[in-house]
Design goal:
single chain; 123 residues; mainly alpha; elongated
Length: 123
Protein backbone atom coordinates (compact mmCIF):
# COMPACT_ATOMS: atom_id res chain seq x y z
CA UNK A 1 0.00 0.00 0.00
CA UNK A 2 2.72 2.48 0.96
CA UNK A 3 4.64 1.64 -2.19
CA UNK A 4 1.70 2.44 -4.48
CA UNK A 5 1.06 5.72 -2.62
CA UNK A 6 4.74 6.63 -3.01
CA UNK A 7 4.51 5.89 -6.74
CA UNK A 8 1.37 8.00 -7.20
CA UNK A 9 2.75 10.93 -5.22
CA UNK A 10 6.05 10.88 -7.10
CA UNK A 11 4.37 10.70 -10.50
CA UNK A 12 1.95 13.50 -9.56
CA UNK A 13 4.80 15.72 -8.35
CA UNK A 14 6.76 14.82 -11.46
CA UNK A 15 3.98 15.96 -13.76
CA UNK A 16 3.54 19.19 -11.83
CA UNK A 17 7.30 19.92 -11.85
CA UNK A 18 7.71 19.20 -15.55
CA UNK A 19 4.69 21.34 -16.43
CA UNK A 20 5.72 24.27 -14.20
CA UNK A 21 9.30 24.09 -15.42
CA UNK A 22 8.18 24.24 -19.05
CA UNK A 23 5.88 27.18 -18.32
CA UNK A 24 8.67 29.04 -16.53
CA UNK A 25 11.09 28.44 -19.40
CA UNK A 26 8.72 29.45 -22.19
CA UNK A 27 5.91 31.61 -20.72
CA UNK A 28 7.60 33.62 -17.98
CA UNK A 29 6.18 37.00 -18.96
CA UNK A 30 2.63 35.65 -18.90
CA UNK A 31 3.24 34.08 -15.48
CA UNK A 32 4.54 37.39 -14.11
CA UNK A 33 1.53 39.28 -15.50
CA UNK A 34 -0.87 36.71 -14.03
CA UNK A 35 0.83 36.74 -10.63
CA UNK A 36 1.72 40.40 -10.19
CA UNK A 37 -0.23 42.47 -12.71
CA UNK A 38 0.93 44.18 -15.90
CA UNK A 39 2.75 47.17 -14.42
CA UNK A 40 4.66 45.25 -11.75
CA UNK A 41 5.51 42.50 -14.23
CA UNK A 42 6.95 45.00 -16.67
CA UNK A 43 9.14 46.47 -13.96
CA UNK A 44 10.22 43.07 -12.61
CA UNK A 45 11.34 41.92 -16.04
CA UNK A 46 14.06 44.58 -16.12
CA UNK A 47 14.47 48.10 -17.42
CA UNK A 48 17.47 47.73 -19.73
CA UNK A 49 18.08 45.08 -22.39
CA UNK A 50 21.03 43.76 -20.37
CA UNK A 51 18.91 43.38 -17.22
CA UNK A 52 16.12 41.74 -19.20
CA UNK A 53 18.53 39.22 -20.69
CA UNK A 54 20.03 38.36 -17.30
CA UNK A 55 16.60 37.93 -15.72
CA UNK A 56 15.38 35.82 -18.64
CA UNK A 57 18.43 33.54 -18.52
CA UNK A 58 18.18 33.17 -14.75
CA UNK A 59 14.50 32.27 -14.88
CA UNK A 60 15.06 29.90 -17.79
CA UNK A 61 17.66 28.02 -15.76
CA UNK A 62 15.24 27.89 -12.81
CA UNK A 63 12.59 26.42 -15.11
CA UNK A 64 15.09 23.93 -16.50
CA UNK A 65 16.04 22.89 -12.98
CA UNK A 66 12.38 22.33 -12.12
CA UNK A 67 11.95 20.30 -15.32
CA UNK A 68 14.97 18.12 -14.45
CA UNK A 69 13.65 17.63 -10.90
CA UNK A 70 10.39 16.41 -12.42
CA UNK A 71 12.28 13.89 -14.55
CA UNK A 72 14.24 12.77 -11.49
CA UNK A 73 11.03 12.30 -9.50
CA UNK A 74 9.60 10.21 -12.31
CA UNK A 75 12.63 7.91 -12.13
CA UNK A 76 12.49 7.71 -8.32
CA UNK A 77 8.82 6.69 -8.51
CA UNK A 78 9.87 3.26 -9.78
CA UNK A 79 12.24 2.46 -6.88
CA UNK A 80 10.76 -0.36 -4.76
CA UNK A 81 13.05 -0.20 -1.70
CA UNK A 82 10.88 0.74 1.33
CA UNK A 83 13.82 2.13 3.30
CA UNK A 84 14.77 4.44 0.43
CA UNK A 85 11.15 5.53 -0.01
CA UNK A 86 10.91 6.55 3.65
CA UNK A 87 14.21 8.44 3.52
CA UNK A 88 13.24 10.16 0.27
CA UNK A 89 9.78 11.09 1.58
CA UNK A 90 11.21 12.68 4.74
CA UNK A 91 13.66 14.68 2.64
CA UNK A 92 10.86 15.85 0.34
CA UNK A 93 8.76 17.00 3.29
CA UNK A 94 11.67 19.00 4.67
CA UNK A 95 12.33 20.47 1.23
CA UNK A 96 8.68 21.46 0.76
CA UNK A 97 8.54 23.21 4.14
CA UNK A 98 11.79 25.08 3.43
CA UNK A 99 10.59 26.15 -0.01
CA UNK A 100 7.22 27.33 1.36
CA UNK A 101 8.89 29.50 3.98
CA UNK A 102 11.32 30.93 1.43
CA UNK A 103 8.54 31.65 -1.08
CA UNK A 104 6.44 33.49 1.50
CA UNK A 105 9.43 35.63 2.46
CA UNK A 106 10.55 36.24 -1.13
CA UNK A 107 7.09 37.00 -2.53
CA UNK A 108 6.55 39.62 0.16
CA UNK A 109 9.82 41.23 -0.83
CA UNK A 110 8.80 41.27 -4.51
CA UNK A 111 5.43 42.83 -3.71
CA UNK A 112 7.17 45.49 -1.58
CA UNK A 113 9.58 46.18 -4.43
CA UNK A 114 6.68 46.48 -6.87
CA UNK A 115 4.87 48.92 -4.60
CA UNK A 116 8.02 51.02 -4.15
CA UNK A 117 8.62 51.08 -7.90
CA UNK A 118 5.01 52.14 -8.50
CA UNK A 119 5.29 54.91 -5.89
CA UNK A 120 8.58 56.12 -7.39
CA UNK A 121 6.97 56.27 -10.83
CA UNK A 122 4.20 58.52 -9.49
CA UNK A 123 6.67 61.10 -8.22
Amino acid sequence: MASSAFFIICVLHSLISVTCGAFIMFYLKEIFVFGHGTETARKLLGSTPHDQLLIQISDSFAGLLLFVIGCFLFMVAFVRDKEFQGFFAKGCILLHISMALWRVYFERRIEDLGIRLAEAACW
